[in-house]
Amino acid sequence: MLKIACYGYVKKESGSVTGANFLMLQELLERGYKIDFFGWKDSNFPFELIGCPNFVYYELPKQSIFREFIKGFLPKLLHNTFNQTLGALMQNLYSERRNQKNILKAVVAQHAIHQYDLLLFLGLYGTFNVDGVPTVSWVQGPPQTEWHYIHKLQKILVQLCGPFVYWQLKAFYTLKYSRLRFEVWKTDIFICGSKWSKEQLVAYGIQPGSIKILPYPMDIPFFNDESQVKKSQSTVKTFLWLGRIDPRKRLDLMMEAFALLLAERQDVRLKIIGAARPMYKGYKQLIDSFEAQEHIEYQPSLSRSTIPDLIKSCDVLIQPSEGENFGSAVAEALCCGVPVILGPTNGTQDFTSPTCCFLFEDYTPEAVKQTMLEALEKIEYSADTISSIAVTTARKNFQLEKVVDNLEEVFQQAVDSYYTRFSNQIS
Question: Are residues 226 and 277 in the same domain?
Fold first, then answer.
């Protein structure tokens, strides 16, 4: 069984990439893989795995000492401003490079003792190589995705949050991608979450044969527990937005489309669960200033344990994001038997069915509204069938064991192709 050196974003009972990564590591350990995980206890510490056979945690030297030292002299009121300006600049110019050197040093030292078979990065692009070890990076999306859509949506962002936020983000991502463009090429096999992401990676210059597509695994029993709350038979239909609020997620589009929907139907509600960073408070004001407040409900967050009940209490999950590699909330909704509405650049559509997934063709309020009407019409006549197909679709695509079966094949391919290449170079 392979011995793996691993670094990445991992957290139990969390949504999105961090929770999926925890499930995968846990399953790999149960299958006998030996995993050495490198990280920091204050930010990246899957403590629940401590004590598992074949798992070793290596704590790295404390990060961002100088940055935290400077922040310590500032009043708490200025901490967010510091993090988004000088702190972010320090992170890109110095702290991140220092951190990667510490990780590389630790991995190389342990490789000299244990001889790793594979280097695995979870949730990010591999930032270094180790001689004689193939590198697999399970990435969250194509390079420059966030900046591409921030720039594309500049007019809306400036209107809601002001020009300073836009230029601040431009400086941050310019520095970040100046580093990333060198790191991308350190990976042997890339794993992404959708065909859309693969197309973007190929356009970036990565060879198609080195890119594999896998969905994030889901804890299906957690979401599909029969004892959980069932939807009421209320005549009022509820749409759910679940996830963070930032420019690419298109809350502006959501609110405009919902306003159009209310002009045609009053038997609808919109629940919005998701936080906006302080710099994006202008997006939050779209909720606060919405005229029909009686038709919306907002909460910045909920405990993870309540998410299945929340989803099941709603009729449709809507995710109008642009450039979505893989929408975990979409997968979670399908696990709960709830249909979804997605846009044309939402890669999660690869793992849905036309019966339980409604696609709008353009990122316009009118197109989104029409798709919301279509979804309402369908669920009013065949809600049980749609729910059943949604669950079946989720089990087919997001079952943990199936995803890890495919992941094992990727690991083996990475090892085989690496050593074939190495042997050819020697001969």
Answer: yes
Q: DSSP class of residue 1?
A: -
Cα-based angle 167, 172, 178 (whole degrees, multiple of 5): 120
Give yes or no: residues 418 and 314 share one domain: no
Neighbouring-strand partners of residue 276: 245
The model's pTM: 0.91
Under DSSP, the state recorded for 319 is E
CATH number at residue 417: 3.40.50.2000
Residues 57 and 98 in one domain: yes
d(CA 11, CA 122) in angstroms, rounded, equals 11
Upper half-sphere CA count for residue 233 (Cβ side, 13 Å): 1
- Report the alpha-carbon angle 355-358-361, nearest 5: 140
pLDDT, tens digit (0-9, with 9 covering 90-100), for 376-419: 999 999 999 999 999 999 999 999 999 999 999 999 999 998 87
Are 355 and 225 contained in the same domain? Answer: yes
Instruction: Give the residue from 10, 30, 29 showing the smallest Cα distance to 19.
Output: 10
What total number of domains does the chain contain? 2
282 & 160 share domain? no
Sheet architecture: strand order including 211-213: 55-59, 34-39, 3-8, 118-122, 135-138, 189-192, 211-213
Q: Say yes or no: 268 and 198 in one domain.
A: no
Torsion sign over Cα 394, 399, 402, 407: positive
Q: What does the pLDDT look like over 228-239, one tens digit per residue?
A: 555 656 789 999
* DSSP 8-state class, residue 126: -
The candidate with the shortest Cα–Cα distance to 245, out of 279, 294, 291, is 279
> Which run of H or E residues covers position 58?
strand 55-59
Domain span holding position 374? 220-398
If asked whether residues 293 and 416 sit together in one domain, one would say no
| 8 Å CB contact between 108 and 165 | no
How far apart, in whole angstroms, are the C-alpha atoms of residue 88 and residue 80?
Answer: 10
Tell me the residue type at 10: V
